[in-house]
């Protein structure tokens, strides 16, 4: 996929909104992939904990795609929603949108599917609460 700028459809409010700092750039002048991955994990964890009504842990990243670079002055919005629910685990679809040029452009920069598991007091998997 190219670095195409898109007119993205309106979506729900972001789970997380962050501005990367100078320390987050790599030698190419873009934001480190690991930095954005950690932001995605934080946002996914917020959604997973709400669904689990308690602590969760990330157990897998099923898919992850870096679509376009994140630039230093971008404002990053991280969106996350439940895609699949199991007995003790859930798959959370996470999408990252960069807002550029003082809000004039939005670019989908990254997306992935993260799996979280609900944890009990002994940090072992536990069933998710009923809907």
From TrEMBL:
InterPro entries: Cytosol_ACT (IPR040170), HOTDOG_ACOT (IPR033120), HotDog_dom_sf (IPR029069), Thioestr_dom (IPR006683). Residues 10-122 form the HotDog ACOT-type domain. The keyword Hydrolase applies. Belongs to the acyl coenzyme A hydrolase family. GO terms for molecular function: fatty acyl-CoA hydrolase activity. This is Acyl-CoA thioesterase. Its EC number is 3.1.2.20. Keywords: Hydrolase.
